[in-house]
């Protein structure tokens, strides 16, 4: 009887050792979480203009260009917009903005400048809010 108890104990110990050595350390598999600026940085190419409820894709518009985001701190970036007319090369939205604050908002990141939300990054798409010279609000989108 004592041999049966010892045999059961050894089997249980062997099973425990196998299960412990076969488990991977979860920390090794998970990449370190990136800060907001690192998740946002890159070059986004103009893809769409939206105004008055109409969405005009880049191919059907007279606009071209990109938006470049450079990390400044983990929660702030510098942004360079260079959106121009395809036909004339005239500036549509060309500017450099420093110290844009990044605020996580669920699955997206809000871009805030002087306490005003000026855009949103959602995955690989950035949308920038603007107002033209005639006072018409628009949204300009670009993708990575």
Architecture overview:
This is Lipocalin-like domain-containing protein. Residues 1-24 form the signal peptide. Keywords: Signal. With 144 residues, the protein is an alpha+beta fold. It has one domain (36-143): Lipocalin (Beta Barrel). Helix content is 21%, strand content 53%. The chain is built from three helices and nine strands; from the N terminus they run αααβββββββββ. The chain has helices at 2-22, 26-29, 36-40; strands at residues 42-51, 54-57, 63-73, 76-85, 91-105, 108-113, 116-122, 125-131, 137-143. Strands 1-3-4-5-6-7-8-9 form an eight-stranded antiparallel barrel. A hairpin with a 5-residue loop joins β4 (76-85) and β5 (91-105).
In the sheet with the most strands, the strands line up as: 1-3-4-5-6-7-8-9
CATH architecture: Beta Barrel
CATH class division: Mainly Beta
CATH topology: Lipocalin
Order of helices and strands: HHHEEEEEEEEE
Number of helices: 3
Query: Portion of residues in helices?
Result: 10-25%
Structural class: alpha+beta
What best-fitting shape do the alpha-carbon axes yield? globular
């Amino acid at each position: 009887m004592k041999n049966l108890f010892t045999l059961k104990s050894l089997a249980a110990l062997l099973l425990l050792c196998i299960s412990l050595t076969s488990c991977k350390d979860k920390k090794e598999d998970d990449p370190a979480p990136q800060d907001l600026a690192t998740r946002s940085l890159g070059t986004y190419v103009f893809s769409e203009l939206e105004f008055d409820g109409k969405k005009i894709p880049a191919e059907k518009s007279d606009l071209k260009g990109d938006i470049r985001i450079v990390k400044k701190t983990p929660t702030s970036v510098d942004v360079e917009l260079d959106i121009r007319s395809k036909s004339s090369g005239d500036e549509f939205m060309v500017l450099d903005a420093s110290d844009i604050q990044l605020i996580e908002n669920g699955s997206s990141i809000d871009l805030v400048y002087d306490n005003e939300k000026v855009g949103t990054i959602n995955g690989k798409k950035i949308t920038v809010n603007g107002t033209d010279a005639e006072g018409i609000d628009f949204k300009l989108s670009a993708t990575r």
